[in-house]
Design brief:
This protein has helices spanning 10-20, 44-51, 74-84, and strands at 38-39, 58-59. By secondary structure, it is mostly helical. The protein has one domain (10-84). It has a two-stranded antiparallel ribbon with strand order 1-2. The longest helix is centred in the N-terminal third of the chain and has 11 residues, at 10-20. It is elongated, with a radius of gyration of 19 Å.
Length: 85
């Protein structure tokens, strides 16, 4: 007998969680989750890769992590962000 897959939307999940704790809210609806300011990285390609916008970059006032293999440019990205700040 195959298992029946049930899918629930985020809004339905949020409604159920609000029954348990009415003080919670979905992150995308929260005022603190809105990113209104970016730090450009000095390259349109890097901006697009990190934020999805040519004019974006790294979100300002956010904690981020740069991870990857040695020699892939993590320090370059960090120093570019510091230079633009």
């Amino acid at each position: 007998m195959a298992k029946k897959s049930t899918q629930i939307s985020f809004s339905e999940l949020n409604d159920e969680l609000n029954k348990i704790s009415p003080d919670g809210d979905m992150l995308e609806d929260c005022e603190f989750a809105k990113i209104d300011e970016y730090i450009g990285l000095g390259s349109y390609i890097l901006n697009a890769a990190t934020s999805g916008s040519l004019f974006g970059g790294i979100p300002n006032r956010r904690s981020i992590t740069l991870a990857g293999e040695q020699g892939t440019g993590k320090t370059y990205i960090a120093l570019s962000a510091c230079r633009k700040q």
